[in-house]
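Task 17 of the worksheet. Students: predict the tertiary structure of the chain below and write it out as structure tokens. Keep your answer in the requested format; marks are given for formatting as well as content.
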Amino acid sequence: MIQRKQVKKTTIYDLAELTGASASAVSSVLNGSWKKRRISAKLAEKITRIAEEQGYALNKPASLLRSKKSKIIGMIVPKYDNRYFGSIVERFESMARERGLFPIITCTQREPALEVEAASAMLSYQVDWMISTGATDPDKITDICAQAGVPTLNLDLPGRHAPSVISDNYGGAKELTHRIFKSCERRLGSAQSLVFVGGRRTDHNTLERLRGFTDAHKEWGLEVAESRLLACGYAPEKSEQALKEYVGQGERPIAGLFVNSTISLEGVMRWMLMSGYTGEKQLAMGCFDWDPFVALLGYDIEMVRQDVPAMLDAIFKIIDAGATDKQLIEIPPLFTR
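Model answer:
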């Protein structure tokens, strides 16, 4: 009778002894969560190599460490209930799949803690690239990803530690302000100082739009009082309340409005209807955002349409080239009425 010797199955504890690592570190590498635990890539590669040599059955996340590429690309976005960010997500998914990449997208509600949590979770899926769209602190996300060896790109809002693709907020805001002035001339016979509504002064985009707004006033020989810059956030109710308070303080009458997004525009429209600014009394208006349904409101509103196709073309050009230079690319926006 022939006796067959059973071969002892390699365990995590065997691999820990062979690699000089803890059993928990070996487990994290084998289940693909090693980046989340800040385990070095060098140790992770060593554990994976020895596990393969010992015939240990690796799961997919661990085997990706050896192949280097997961073909997964991640994106965080601040909002879904906005045509601009919705169009970014839709086109991003399509362009990623055209390249054989699998897109993972999550909404972070402009919450810094959620942005970090989302980035860390995507790293556990071994993403090849991370796209931070409209992030409150894109550099923090870049630094987290850099520790894991994952390149990042910033979209919509720029950062200092990774390439950024954004709209030309200054040039677009300046041109939009000029167009609102011309609307004022048609309605009132002359251009008058405008009121800026919406956005956050902590955002690069809002600051650049305020700069373009102010410089356009100077070119028309007009001044802008600080009280007319209502950077109150993006929520509709905040825009509505800011205008109520502005009027309630007995400030100069409003001749025209520069609205910083369609989200803010919702609150502005509620305030206008409540205040009787309809028909011939409507204000000259412009919005640094675009939605085709605005045309149905009966208001003559100048709108800036950010060029999403051109912005994402620039993003994927960088990805296709594997470039990581800390460049800033500004895409001119489009105008419509």
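Marker's comment: The mean pLDDT is 89. The domain at 169-305 is CATH 3.40.50.2300 (Rossmann fold).
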